[in-house]
Each structure stands twice: as C-alpha cells, then as structure tokens.
Design a protein that fits this description.
Length: about 190
C-alpha cells in the first residue's frame, strides 16, 4: 500500500531532480534498494544536496598569539582588579532616577513609566565609615566605577553605560557616605525621553 501514491512519488522525484544540481544515484546501498520509493524520499531530498567543501568562517578562529581573549571581549575596568589587595569592598546601593513632574505623576502626559528605560540618571550610594573626603580617589568610566580609599576599594561594573564626563559626586561626612550621580547614556533617548 503506497502512502502517497505513485504519481506523488514521481512528482517528488521530479522536483528533487529539478532543484538539485547533481545526483548521486550510484551510491545506493542494499537497504535503499529493498525499501519502497515512498520511504526513500524525505524532506532532505528536496533541493540541492549540501556542499561538502565549506569554508570555515574566520570570525571565531583564534590567531597564533597566546592571548586567550580579544581586547573587545574583556570587560572595561578589569585592569583595576587586584586579587592580592586585602582591602574590603564597601557597601553600596545603585538607584535609578527619573525626572518626573506633576503632569507625569497625575496625568501621565509624557508617557514615562516606572521601567529603567525611562530613567535619566543613576545614583550610586557608597558607605565609607571612618573616611575623610580627601582620602577618596574616584575614577568613573563609561561602564565602570573605581573607588579607592586607604581602608576600602570598589571596582563596580555599572548596569548601564553612562556619560563619564557629566557626573557629580558628593561626600556626606556626618553619615560617612559618598553619593555619585551619573547621567545615563541611552541609544534611544530621543524616543524614550519625550
């Protein structure tokens, strides 16, 4: 009993012959000779056969150097990682901020929502007890914040890219806390911030 009928098998064979550039009829083994024509054809028989000599893409091929990673694969700020430095990491908190007015809060006119895509700034609060403002060394990059004091060190990979030249830092000595306000860099600011 044929599953497709003789005409359907012949149509599939004709379609396969049309779409393929070369046919390998000589390589049939004993198993395929004993199987009905309906069982011999499958979805892989339609179209040209796969090419055997494919070129390997050079995107993932390693160079002959002894480097493990390419420079663009290493996260920004990794040069500050020092595993032998015994200074502890201070407690910190990252808060995303939005500028909202009454028209946003009560009427929803600007289209802002509570998501991080509508935030304009990032506030990083770092607790530095028993530290003076003059002891703090702060370096801010696009995706990395580096803070050093005689007692603490913090290498923080930021969750969003920022404008490194447009930030502001304020040290509160009465509570031993540094607040760093950073302006977020968003590729779609003209859409999100209207």
């Amino acid at each position: 009993m044929d599953c497709l009928g003789v005409s359907s098998v012949q149509n599939l064979q004709a379609l396969s012959a049309l779409l393929s550039t070369q046919q390998d009829d000589d390589e049939e083994d004993e198993f395929s000779k004993n199987v009905s024509p309906c069982a011999q054809l499958g979805p892989g028989h339609i179209g040209p056969p796969p090419k055997k000599d494919r070129k390997v893409s050079t995107a993932n091929v390693k160079t002959k150097s002894k480097d493990i990673w390419r420079e663009e694969e290493v996260a920004e700020g990794s040069q500050y990682d020092d595993l032998t430095d015994p200074r502890p990491q201070p407690e910190y908190e990252i808060i995303l901020k939005q500028s909202v007015g009454t028209e946003d809060l009560f009427l929803g006119l600007s289209g802002k929502d509570p998501s991080s895509m509508c935030c304009e700034a990032m506030l990083v609060k770092i607790k530095l007890p028993d530290t003076k403002a003059t002891d703090v060394a702060l370096d801010v990059r696009e995706k990395f914040l580096d803070l050093r004091t005689p007692k603490y060190k913090l290498g923080l990979h930021l969750p969003h890219p920022i404008h490194s030249q447009e930030g502001r830092a304020q040290f509160f000595s009465e509570r031993g806390e540094l607040e760093v306000t950073l302006l977020l860099k968003r590729p779609l600011d003209f859409i999100n911030m209207q």
